[in-house]
Design brief:
The chain has no helices and eleven strands. It is mainly β. The radius of gyration is 13 Å and the shape is globular.
């Protein structure tokens, strides 16, 4: 079966792709701190969570953020510098919701920071 890939992203250590088939996300590579989004530290290709409604994803050095089709923003991976935007510096090995907003439009991860734009055009930065 052929699957159309909507996004293919590569951080320094972990590729992540978002497949069009049901908007599922898959990752593989180094997951030593949960940067791919599942609890295993094995180097294996695996679906990220049970969600099937991912719309956009971005990878930083060791962290990942993604937007669902409903406009919610999710984060996982290293959080040493607050790059996940969840109000603490605890690493997350699976997707956690960043806030209660449902109007996120774009996200871009840098090495240890994140930039995101809401639908009203406001730019947010953290990390």
């Amino acid at each position: 079966m052929h699957i159309l890939i909507l996004f293919f992203l590569l951080s320094l250590v972990s590729p992540i792709n978002l497949a069009s088939q049901g908007y599922k996300m898959y990752g593989w590579g180094d997951n030593s701190i949960g940067q791919i989004g599942f609890d295993s530290t094995l180097w294996e290709r695996k679906k990220v969570g049970m969600e099937t409604d991912w719309a956009m994803v971005s990878c930083g050095w060791d962290h990942t953020l993604a937007i669902k089709k409903d406009g919610t923003l999710w984060a996982w991976g290293r959080n040493e510098n607050g790059e996940l935007g969840i109000g603490n510096t605890t690493d997350q090995s699976s997707p956690v919701r960043v806030d209660t907003s449902t109007d996120w439009a774009m996200v871009s991860c840098g090495g240890y920071h994140t930039l995101a734009i809401k639908k009203d055009g406001t730019l947010w930065a953290w990390g």
